Amino acid sequence: MTRRTERSIQELYRDDPERADALAFGRRGALKGAALAAMGGAIGAAIPFAGKMPAGTLPALFARPAAAQGAAPATLQMEGKGPLIIQGERPLNAETPETLLDEPVTSARNMFIRNNGGVPDMPADPRTWKLTVDGEVNTPLEITLGELESRFPVVTRQLQLECGGNGRAAFAPQTRGNQWGNGAISNGEWTGVRLRDVLQAAGLKPSAVATGHYGADPHLSGEPGRPSIARGMRIAKAMDEDTIIAFRLNGQPIPLVNGAPLRLVTPGWPGSLSQKWLTRVWVRDKPHDGPGMGGTSYRVPQRPIVPGSNNNGADFRDLESMPVRSILSSHEHGARLPASTRSLDLRGAAWAGDLTVRAVHVSVDFGATWTEMQVAAPTNRHAWQRWTGRVALPSDGYYEIWYRATDSEGRMQPHLPANWNPQGYGANAISRAAILVG
Fold first, then answer.
1. Would the pTM of this model clear 0.85, i.e. be above it?
2. FRET label pair with 427: which of 151, 277, 300, 322, CA 20 to 30 Å apart?
3. pLDDT tens-digit profile of 123-153?
4. Are 61 and 401 in contact (CB under 8 A)?
């Protein structure tokens, strides 16, 4: 007789979720007896709220990809940068752990990296960097960084900058692209000139309806003149007072890997619209059609499609204002706290694209009850909002901090990522962080 070796709970949920549910939760959908003991043994602690764990819930301690694979994620080793999580090396992409975002203004050291091509060389004198504004304008411009700074009003704003694929790892089935968690977000203090002022100086023609953006980043193929990415936006967003051509971050020159010496910052919309190493803004009489536009690129279904299905994006719409999302920055996922810890002082940040955040709620009993946190007003429009609050813990053991935000129009982060799409945009499900006490 051949004896079958059962897989670990992580392997079961990864390979056979229906069998995992049957073994862990049984027919009654609750952890009891041997199933509860097995789950607690796998975790290494008692589960005080086990009776409230929804059926089919793989504990957050095992749910994140690195934990499921049994290995720590690779971290970036780069001068001037913190230990970011490497999402890809060619091109370089790196995510900020949520605990490194525990600062009201994101430092350059902790700002995530999102590239589509290579990193260009920095000019000897950054002030000579040239920007061209052409297309549907009355007076095309070719202007240096130095001239931008001297000719137009200089503004400084705290602005959220988020990758369109932030949260992609939560989609099931898995989608294409870097498997970002929650850390492809930043809230830097950007200094520059309003794109609106530059476009007005060029004189928009009545035919101007959209922009197209180009940068100096070389294509990975090495083909000269081939853009790595060239996205564009509706003129209305280009004329927003918070859309700026930036040349300083937190009072200092922008780091090269983050777009120096000149970049767009288009807050609240996908970060791909915040063109790094900016060389050209092409004003167009139709939506832009550069690489990164059309099809399924930075676009989401207007009507839900079957998860995992193929689609050419013909019925998709451009992803514009990013959905509401929150992070927990005070406690690291998987942290072990001293025995007899009976309360947690929590803090984090939340944002909602062009909107604001109305509320943040936290649960420590698997979503059975929720505690409202205190949410601060944004420093300025398009800045994220910090939140704080306290939750009680009845005993030692394993807990999950579930956190969710609600935007100013009443939309709340869903329990599971909605509107699956082939390239994984807009996933903003409730997040879970595992905490062990004792």
1. yes
2. 277
3. 999 999 999 999 999 999 999 999 999 999 9
4. no
